[in-house]
Specification:
Blueprint: E1 2-7, H1 14-28, E2 32-38, E3 55-58, H2 66-78, E4 83-86, H3 92-101, E5 107-111, H4 121-124, E6 128-133, H5 136-145, E7 153-155, H6 162-168, H7 174-181, E8 187-192, H8 201-214, E9 220-225, H9 234-245, E10 252-255, H10 261-266, E11 270-273, H11 282-289, E12 294-297, H12 300-305, E13 313-315, H13 320-332, H14 334-351, H15 354-370
Parallel strand pairs: 1-2, 1-4, 2-3, 4-5, 5-6, 6-7, 8-9, 8-11, 9-10, 11-12, 12-13
């Protein structure tokens, strides 16, 4: 199959990791994969299996960038693309237009976020062949809005390569890595994600303030890992102000971009996702697959990944007090952390492998092409 993956992303997060993993894995399985990216895309460096001739860069300024859509249609015709697959909301109209202009090439979109789509999409995306939702929660939202016919929606949860996890940890010295993160800490707790109100880092800070105020964990270090992509760095500044307000500078460290994310997550004693909304968090899934005990707010994505009390702990969204109480419980109970972490490793690797995700996506492609 000749498949074009489209993303105008200018930063790298969970959706972009999905894009890169899917594209590389499809190529490894013998599919003829192409990519359309923005000029400033961080994705090109991640698409190791795609030849330069299979990648086109365009301005992809916004959903109304007709010049980019016209160039994209030309590329689709020239390369005889059989399927166009878009991954960002602002790219959906461009992909729909380009696929139609290129002669009615089947167009597929993946919905990575739980936020509602506009009713306008019902008309601009009328030619979509299939809509892939990364969780049942996302699919429920799509069905409720009736943007697309229900029979076009398919649920394919995100996946992570077990083999890639093994490669990342092949020469991993956990003790040494922990010393790099915090030389004096006996317990490491971390949260990973772009610095953003929706990711709940402020609730994480408030939970830490409660923990430190209740019991002075002098040997614990709390890590916030993630880039600040806000226009003027205001999100990080707000977090730093909150940390200062609670006098937590000695307890919380903020990291920006971390290249060795898998070793970092594997070094933790406890992983926390305090998100206010999450379709399917890849960092949380990585923590589960690495066998790290995890506490997460009960977003749609977390509820699908975690069996509460068995493979992790779920707390109400936005409830910093419950988050602190559950974190404190696990910080005190190493045996419980080990038990939950081991069950999480076993079950998540069985349910959410990259191979399963790619096979399911290929099946959607075959289904669409069979109907042409």
């Amino acid at each position: 199959m000749k498949v074009l993956q489209l993303s105008s992303a200018r930063t790298f997060g969970g959706g972009e990791r999905h894009f890169a993993d899917l594209s590389n894995a499809l190529s490894a399985r013998g599919q003829d994969v192409y990519a359309a990216l923005s000029h400033a895309s961080p994705l090109r460096a991640k698409l190791a299996r795609l030849a330069d001739s299979h990648v086109i860069t365009l301005a992809l300024r916004n959903a109304l960038d007709l010049a980019s859509a016209t160039s994209l249609a030309r590329f689709i015709r020239e390369q005889q693309i059989e399927i166009v697959h878009a991954h960002l909301a602002r790219d959906y109209p461009l992909a729909a237009y380009a696929a139609r202009r290129a002669g009615g090439v089947p167009f597929i979109l993946t919905r990575h976020v739980p936020f509602p789509m506009s009713g306008l999409h019902k008309f601009t995306l009328a030619n979509v062949a299939r809509v892939i939702a990364v969780s049942e929660g996302v699919a429920r939202g799509l069905r409720a809005r009736r943007i697309f016919p229900g029979e076009k929606i398919r649920v394919i949860p995100n996946g992570i390569s077990v083999a890639s996890l093994g490669d990342a940890l092949a020469n991993f010295d956990r003790a040494e890595f922990r010393r790099k993160l915090s030389a004096d800490a006996t317990l490491l707790v971390g949260t990973v994600g772009e610095l953003s109100p929706v990711k709940g880092q402020e609730e994480f800070v408030r939970a830490v303030a409660t923990i430190i105020g209740r019991e002075n964990f002098t040997g614990a270090q709390f890590l916030i890992i993630g880039d600040d992509n806000s226009r003027a760095g205001e999100t990080r500044a707000r977090l730093e102000s909150l940390i200062g307000e609670h006098e937590l500078q000695a307890h919380i460290r903020l990291f920006g971009h971390v290249s060795e994310l898998t070793p970092l997550i594997s070094s933790l004693d406890l992983y926390v996702s305090a998100s206010r909304a999450e379709a399917f968090g890849l960092a949380t899934l990585e923590a589960l697959m690495c066998g790290v005990a995890t506490v997460a707010t009960a977003t749609d994505g977390a509820r699908e990944m975690i069996d509460d009390g068995v493979t992790g702990k779920l707390v109400p969204v936005g409830d910093a007090e419950s988050l602190a109480r559950t974190m404190l419980q696990l910080l005190h109970d190493g045996d419980e952390r080990a038990r939950i972490g081991e069950r999480a490793r076993e079950e998540s690797r069985a349910r959410f492998s990259l191979e399963r995700m790619v096979e399911a996506t290929e099946e959607v492609y075959r289904e669409v092409l069979a109907a042409v």
